[in-house]
Specification:
The chain has 333 residues and is of the alpha+beta class. It folds into three domains: 92 residues, Rossmann fold; 64 residues, ATP-grasp fold, A domain (Dna Ligase, domain 1), CATH 3.30.1490; 144 residues, D-amino Acid Aminotransferase, Chain A, domain 1 (2-Layer Sandwich). The chain is 33% helix and 18% strand. β13 and β14 form a beta hairpin. α1 packs across α10 and α2 runs parallel beside α3. The N and C termini lie close together (10 Å).
Length: 333
């Protein structure tokens, strides 16, 4: 079997500090290649405008997809859509799920329809829409269709209407997209790595982010500053616990809500789901990441590999298990 990791690097006219946050580094791309090459023949294909013809000519047996795409809310769905057109198997979720999960508001609408807890929210397309505001402060303001904490800064945590207007205007102007407003949940925060399909879906050891260990001047959210500036390989934040210390009842609730979310959104092969407890201690879905971050160095606080290591899987084992899971779904093994 040949496997084919796909990644992408985008240009942007926006000169904002988090422009490159979603993109995989060359180190990560090469680590994915090396892990798969332990057992398979690997061909690298860049997820750019030439990808369709390269994929058509190469005809890989299966693609290991890590492509973030180019532009628009559907950008993570672009390479999988090409692969579907070419009838080439690939790892991870299909275009529909990838597009929905990047659109945070649409995701929350689906979860709400299925009675899966998620914070109360409002979508703002222009500052004038704030006349419909009826949420309770504090509020988290974020771009509706970004990942890797893009657009989420210390200033995103707002406690009054004046600051809310400023943050909404910032998101609208800098990210050219809707602003998502969410009621802030005061409870513990977790991230949950999912692996598999159907009844074979595994919930890997749960990771907790312990905000009590944050510096005093940092708000209790994993913002861009926390993820990419404060938390570095050279000076990692010691705020992650895996496995999280949970009561059996809370662990059961978190696993159940994650499995329900994974099923409802039709995720495939793997995903990472962010959870926060509300004031009553009930798990709420914050975000679903069907293309989870997979930084290879254990010194990096990359939560999916961290959960996998706790489960006894090194980086090579993890990525090849994802590949095998997808191949099995396509009846290739």
């Amino acid at each position: 079997m040949s496997s084919n990791p796909v990644t992408s690097f985008r240009n942007s006219s926006k000169k904002i500090q988090d422009t490159f946050a979603e993109w995989d580094s060359r180190d990560t791309v090469n680590a994915v290649r090396d892990a798969l090459a332990e057992f398979h023949t690997v061909t690298m294909i860049e997820a750019d405008h030439n990808a369709f013809e390269k994929l058509k000519d190469t005809k890989p047996d299966i693609v290991f997809n890590v492509a973030e795409g180019f532009f628009g809310v559907s950008r993570e769905a672009q390479i999988p859509a090409m692969l579907d057109m070419l009838n080439i198997p690939y790892t991870g979720s299909d275009p529909s799920t990838l597009a929905i999960c990047l659109d945070k508001a649409r995701t929350k609408e689906i979860l709400s329809f299925h009675h899966i807890p998620t914070p109360k929210f409002l979508v703002i397309d222009q500052v004038g829409d704030l006349k419909e505001f009826a949420l309770q402060f504090p509020i988290i303001v974020k771009p509706n269709a970004e990942g890797s904490s893009k657009g989420i800064f210390t200033s995103s945590f707002v406690k009054n209407f004046a600051d809310l207007e400023i943050e909404v205007e910032r998101v609208l102007n800098e990210y050219d997209q809707s602003a998502l407003l969410e009621e802030f949940l005061p409870g513990r925060e977790f991230t949950v790595a999912m692996l598999g399909n159907g009844r074979e879906t595994e919930v890997l050891p749960i990771v907790e982010i312990n905000y009590s260990e944050f510096p005093e001047d940092f708000i209790p959210i994993y913002s861009y500053e926390a993820k990419w500036i404060l938390d570095t390989k050279e000076n990692p934040l010691d705020v992650f616990s895996c496995p999280a210390k949970l009561s059996l009842e809370l662990e059961r609730k978190i696993k159940n809500v994650c499995l329900a979310t994974y099923k409802v959104l039709r995720c495939k092969d793997w995903s990472r789901i962010d959870i926060r407890l509300d004031a009553s201690g009930e798990p709420n879905i914050i975000e679903i990441n069907p293309l989870p971050g997979i930084l290879p160095d254990p010194k990096d606080n990359s939560c999916y590999p961290k959960a996998a290591r706790t489960a006894g899987m090194d980086y090579t084992t993890l990525l090849n298990k994802v590949l095998f899971t997808a191949a099995k779904r396509y009846n290739l093994v």
